[in-house]
Design a protein that fits this description.
The chain has helices at residues 3-16, 36-42, 61-70, 122-132, 183-197, 221-228, 247-260, 277-285, 299-304, 332-336, 344-355, 360-367, 376-390; strands at 50-54, 74-79, 93-96, 111-116, 136-142, 201-206, 209-210, 230-235, 241-246, 264-268, 270-276, 292-297. The chain is α/β, with parallel strands linked by helices and 391 residues long. Helix 1 crosses helix 8 (277-285).
């Protein structure tokens, strides 16, 4: 059986097996209401928690809120109310403020669990701690695998070194414009601040988070592109590894970690077993009635054409001496704590469905490759150049 046929069958079977894997399906994506069918399917937690979620209305946050509410927990949100204003109104307590300079709404509050989604700057951890230190049972910090400066070793676990703050750089004086330049170091320093202020804490380091509500297009490009059909530029080789996690999987697991009171540091990406770029693309192909076909273009030629991994070809980073471990992070600790994954076909189909509900200007930016991916015109030009070179 050919690789393409085999991966297509695997992906299709996985989509049909979602119920058997214990995944709770829902139509659409996170909304401001939790329907009874979803609540019944999720089940109630044995002991309801009083949970503060910092953020909560962006990408993974709404999924955390939906799942936690369905489990019977009391939820409080702290944010600026600028991303999806009023979301979950009437279902949660909402505290208005800004982690950067206005956290007084937290004064005197007590929580069993705090889930910190948005923090990039260590000062944000400190600001919250100034109000909540001693009043929090368990602090869960959503970090990133970008804390690792070295990506050349496959199967590296959570014990390897993280990125230090460069000499002469004060993490407390950096402003938002520096977030990209020092992202790994800032997150790494923030992890240390969490450990300093909260004896009981959990550090979760996700990889690429994907699925409905993701406006970065770093995964969305592929189901949208394959649904258009035709000849598709497939980057690198079919065996190049990829890793990512559905936002709903990490959100629900985060709530379960809170319920368990689990502490420690965990890489949180997926899937459970290694996934190649070919398996990824054929898995996405399984959810569309279009008939895309793939032309594999080597990484060195793509570099010549100024096609960038990760940005122009989302999800993909070609293996090289300094990137051999980028998409091969060890996730055994998270698996031991019950991290589960919905099938790729489910993530791809629901992301495609969500994309069709987005505002026209967002869909156009995706088509133009303005955030991630490339336009149809650019793709054709690179494919034509590759064919000319081979000829």
């Amino acid at each position: 059986m050919s690789t393409s046929r085999r991966t297509f069958i695997k992906a299709s079977a996985a989509a049909g097996g979602a119920f058997g894997l214990g995944i709770v399906p829902r139509l659409g994506f996170a909304s401001s209401t939790v329907d009874e069918a979803y609540r019944e399917a999720v089940g109630r937690a044995s002991a309801p928690l009083n949970i503060l979620i910092l953020g909560g209305t962006g990408f993974t946050g709404p999924e955390q809120v939906n799942y936690a509410l369905a489990r019977g927990h009391k939820i409080t949100l702290f944010n600026r109310d600028k991303t999806r204003p009023g979301m979950f109104k009437g279902q949660v307590e909402h505290l208005l403020g800004d982690l950067n300079d206005n956290v007084t709404a937290l004064h005197g509050k007590k929580f069993d669990v705090v889930i910190d989604n948005p923090t990039t700057f260590p000062a944000w951890v400190r600001n919250v701690a100034n109000e909540l230190k001693g009043n929090v049972g368990h602090y869960i910090f959503i970090s990133t695998i970008s804390v690792y400066p070295e990506n050349g070793t496959p199967d590296a676990n959570e014990d390897v070194a993280t990125t230090p703050m460069p000499d002469g750089v004060d993490p407390y004086t950096l402003v938002r414009e520096n977030a990209g330049k020092y992202y790994g170091a800032l997150k790494s320093y923030s992890e240390k601040e969490v450990a300093r202020y909260y004896p009981k804490h959990t550090i979760i380091r996700p990889g690429l988070i994907v699925g409905p509500l993701d406006r970065s297009d770093r995964f969305t490009y592929w189901p949208v592109r394959l649904d258009r059909g035709g000849e598709v530029l497939a980057p690198g080789t079919p065996n190049d590894p990829v890793q990512f996690i559905d936002a709903r999987d990490i959100a629900e697991w985060t709530i379960r970690m809170a319920e368990m009171g689990a502490t420690g540091t965990y890489n949180a990406t997926g899937p459970r077993t290694p996934l190649s770029m070919a398996e990824f693309l054929y898995g996405v192909k399984a959810i569309t009635s279009a008939d895309p076909h793939f032309t594999w273009v080597p990484a060195d030629f793509l570099h010549e054409q100024k096609i960038r991994e990760w940005r122009d070809m989302p999800v993909w980073v070609p293996p090289a001496p300094d990137t051999n471990g980028f998409a091969r992070r060890n996730i055994n600790r998270a698996l031991e704590k019950g991290l589960t994954f919905r099938p790729l076909a489910v993530t791809a189909k629901e992301t495609l469905d969500w994309n069709k509900t987005r505002p026209a200007d967002e869909q156009q930016r995706l088509a133009n490759g303005q955030i991630a991916g490339i336009s149809a015109e650019r793709e054709k030009a690179v494919l034509d150049a590759w064919k000319a070179k081979k000829a």
